Amino acid sequence: MIVLGIETSCDETAAAVVEETGALDRPWRLRSSVVASQTEIHREWGGIVPELSARQHIRDICGVVERAIADAGSPAYDAIAVTQGPGLVGSLLVGLSFAKSLAWARSVPLIPVHHLAGHIESLVLERGEMPLPAIVLVVSGGHTNLYWVTAPGVYELLGRTRDDAAGEAYDKVAKLLGLGYPGGPVVDRLAARGNDRAIPFPKTRLTHADRNAPHLHGRRDFSFSGLKTSVLRHVTLRRAELGLAVDANLPEDEVAHVCASFQRVAVENLLDRLFDAARWYDARSVGIAGGVSANSRLRADAIVRGDQRGIPVFIPSLALSTDNAAMIAAAGLRRYRTGIASLLDVNADASLAL
Ligand code: KG4
Ligand code: ZN
Which end of the chain, N or C, is surrounded by fewer C-beta atoms within 10 Å? Predict the structure, then answer.
């Protein structure tokens, strides 16, 4: 079976073609993957402007899908998987409406996919099924969620962020350092030049349960707003000490130290909880997916911790870490195999639950 995937939940218009192989060690084969990024459009505004994003998806979607089909080497596909949510509703609607029209015109089934189920599938797409049970951390611009995976496609939420998502914290720290948008990759790059012990930003400790999700008991939750505020306080103090204007940038070497020190704590916050949960639940593997899984320190430190504990660590290749449609096609294929396809009246859902 061959699936065409379409993803437009945020600021990337993406399409991909994935083929089922039937092999256990590598269930899907990637035939093509095309991603059109809107970064240049949103950079001018310092963050994603939802209306501009939706309009750009409309401009790009035809070309991106055509290209993915052409690159796949054969125009045939048996189903269409599309991101239903969560995400920006105007952006989601473009991909979903396009997918519905195409499914209707081609008389193929339409499979709505949860964006985070797509990210989790990116772990399996290149390396085959993870040894289960597994703990999976999904870290993106909008989510920081910890899942307990007992069977392929079955995800139980163990913890989540109480405030900012990890990617959001990266983006906000970059903004306050005057580094522009998107922040994650820039902070990651500059951190390599700084001293990660230069500034003792505090690690997050959460001991109380989340009032909005008491069933999660709070033990596996994340919080990034305190860390972000510490960075803000440090930058404000240093500007005053150096006699700089309130919105001036710090000297380059100091910026690198802030990036490195922030990144060390952010990565420790993520990996402490991931590996703590893996030990607690006696997991046979761990995975890290979502845009922030592209972070060089997170990847390197996760592999070191995995080796120390003798537990395999699954991280997607860089191309599949950030938003793409290959992961949506693969997650769609898994859903379709469980008998799920949708009527053409399915709607986009900006806060869809997994
Ligand atoms: O999954 P994704 O591409 O889109 C969402 O679903 O949100 O994740 C985007 C997020 C952004 O916040 C971006 O700054 C962050 O991932 N990101 C990174 C890196 N590359 C992207 N964060 C830290 N280090 C990176 N190298
Ligand atoms: Zn994403």
Answer: N
